[in-house]
Amino acid sequence: QPLTARARKFANKIHGRLGVSVKLHDERLSTVEARAGLFEHGGFRALNKGSVDSASAVIILESYFEQGY
What we know:
Elements: H1 2-18, H2 30-42, H3 49-66
Helix pairs in contact: 2-3
């Protein structure tokens, strides 16, 4: 995917310029998981963009910690 290649290139630039280790994470399914969880707890009313984005961010962060970084 073009966007994936751009993200990798950006991560490589950060690593090269700052010497910081960059961990990449595939977050494509986080939105699907977030929407399913929100719908389960609140129906369609819970599916606003802010709630979905926030829940997706939580899922990504939890996944990061589960991998032991």
